[in-house]
Predict the 3D structure of the following.
Amino acid sequence: MSRKLWALLVALALLLALATYVYYRRTVAAEPVDAYALVPDDAVLVLTTRDHPALVRHLQETQLWDNLTAVRYVQQAADHLAVADSLAGGNGRNTSLLALLGRKQVVTSVHVTGPGAFDVLYQVPLASVREYRQVRGLLETLGRDRRYRLSQRLLDGQELSVLTEVRTETSLTVLNYRNHLIMSTNAGLVEAVVQRLRHPGAPTVLAHFADTDVLRLPEIDAALWLNFRRLPQLLDVLFRPAAHARFDHLATLAADGLLGLRLTGPVAELAGFANPETARGALQAQVQGQPAQPFGLAAVLPTRTALVVQLAVRPLAPAGPAGPDSVGLRVALDSLAASFGPEMAVAYLAAAAPGVAPGRLAYLRCPAPARTARWLGEVRRRTGQPAAFTRVGGYEIHPLGVAIGGLLRPLLAPAAPGEAVPAPAGALVGGYLVMADAATLSGALADVGAGLTWARTPAYAAFLAHTLPRARLGIYLDTHNAWNGLLGALTEDRRAGLLRNEALFRRFPQMAWQLVPPPDAAAPGAQYFGRLLLHRPSAGVGAVLAGAGEARGLAFPSPLVGTPLLVAAAGTRVPAALVQDSAGVAYFVSPDNGVVWADSLGAPLVGAGPLAAGPGAAGGLALAAGHRVHRLALADGREAPPFPLNLPDTVRATALHTSTPAGAAPRLLVAAGAQALFLLDAAGRQYPGWGPKVLDFPLAGAPALLSVGGRDVVVCPLQNGYVYAYDQRGGRLPGFPLSVGARLAGGVAVQAATTLGRTRLTVVNQHGELVTFTLVGDVLARRRVATWSRTATFRLVPATGGGASYGVARDEENGRYDFYLPPQAAPVVSRRFVTSGPKPTQFFDFGGSGRAVAVGEPGPGLAYVFDAQGRLLGGQPLASTGAGVGLAYHAATGTYQLVRLVGRELRRTELRP
């Protein structure tokens, strides 16, 4: 062959290769891959995520992240990624497959692959050649390690990479289809993807939701597609078949659904749409056209209830016995069925132990109870039942007998198919016919009579307030009460997994699944609205036990320090809280114990206070840490310009005090050490003479920042027994400094007025004298609080939040402690503590009878909370490792909400006098 001919052939080959490459890039590669077209048809669940940083952040805010990372499966995956990072030379932070996720659409599908087994298929798009090389290099690096074995095989022209761990012989199969990474530990699932590629036009699992993209909705963290037709197969993997068979019929209301996941504080919500089931014999055919019903069972459900299944359907008339003598009985049964309303429910009570059958209650709504009672009596008479009954409280329990139970069994078939009616006893309670065995029914009625119901328990009332008002199907679960039942219903290997991950499962102890039909259910393509709610009861909401209701603590990564700052929240009597941990991170915690935002301040928080809105500035929180003053928004923790304000680098703030005069911008008084003060406004302007104001002697307590007749005044009590009062320019007011005759300790109580002469201030000196004076330097009164001694220390404790109210603490070296509320002569609190030294004291005055004093004992880490009569609230001291506690008062109920720090936990406790 001549050289010219050879060169021509080479040129043609190159041109052909170039044309093929251009065709591929402009046609095949340019067409995006539909990830759902690669999901095998037997998927039970398909989870789609797109913004992984936001998802992780929301999981952390709802305290689910720590629980998830404790799951053994997640730990094993993290271990493999850590090994891959080290072998690939990564820095352990943003390398490996975790960095590939970012804001990509990642699809995860769950499949039942055998008896008692399910597997997961992952799909991750690769956006660049660099990412492809990273994944390829990662697999090759692991394949060269002696702990792994890497091999390749072809299937229908697609190359499958199989990475096997030598020790366990477990493998990961990986397919790269058009820069779309598909992987699973089950090779059959990846092979099923290759088989789907043979039929590119086949409908996808999301064919019924092709025009719906829930991930585009605001605040949606993930999308979940659920195949109700295959849900019983997944339940077979988790539960014993006999345990869930009675509920499988409920899944035939819908064929499939697409839900959006939203994580917000105490609530995890999955909401979206579901297509009605069209198969013959499905429950959907029986309830078609039935309107949704409200949940009216709250007043008759005991708090021991573990599971409730409510269905909006009118009971069908049961078939009576045949024969000419049974005509009257059939008429009575038809009339009894006609007296029931379109709602039925089955409730399961908490089981005494795993494997013990729970008590079961059946409910049928009775719009006209008198009519139902009359026809029920007629049925009982015609079946030969005695007229005797037993009474529990104000309720009558009538025996029904096995015969009536068999006749009434079809009434509850839609809600509990295959189950016998709980007989032989029934009672009319709150507009419902309740049927159960005699012992279960007696116990349930006793609970209802005692008020131990969902309607009268705040935790359940708050849960139901978050649910939909009406539904065709409602399933409500309390995991605390259902725990033993779940342990008994799970298969043996799944039971061990439940016990290992108990914290994750109990994170949201209240769950509700509801299906609501559209207003026009007969319209073509009408879909259900479906909602799965995972709810955590708010802290401080629940039953109060023996004067103190302890709520579950909220754990943080590092020990908490300082004193929690409480912020009132609209619509709830439980306050929000600002806390900081030893790592310098401040957390704003919502009333329901959800972390709203977190901010690393880089230094210990030395002062904080709510800042009211002023001209040109929104309200928020003022914080002092290190040499900076911050102003953060309550909603999201963002810094409000021009904050942060910077003090000189050599200065470290030790306290912060705020004031917002009427019609004026907020003022900020920052203490730096014991003898330096800075006065600034919200715009960051430093007032002349306050840059800083250096005092002659250390402060005895917190200075007072107030506004009198439009003038800013700063009052400083000093340890040497002198009180100074300064104006806005740093000059001393006439009449000051004022000597109080002895050394000082503690703060200043202020009774503000419109003029300097009418404004009254009070301090206490170490002779036990209360000294009251004005801002013109006139001493108005002196009186002794208690007997003076050389070992006694007196401190004035202003009420938290400022104001004229105050108390006086008296400490003795022998551990004796007294607290006075002038003008009372006798101490309100008088106690001898084991430890000596001054006790941190906080005085709270909420007006009226809402006054309390909190005394800390730092040595053993205890807090004592007393009311205005000196009674110890809760009956015993409570653990507290912080510098102080937070306390709120609800006048309508007369209860206190105590917020305290215990190690790494923020704990809320409800206290009653």
Remarks:
- The chain has a mean pLDDT of 80.
- The longest helix spans residues 3-28.
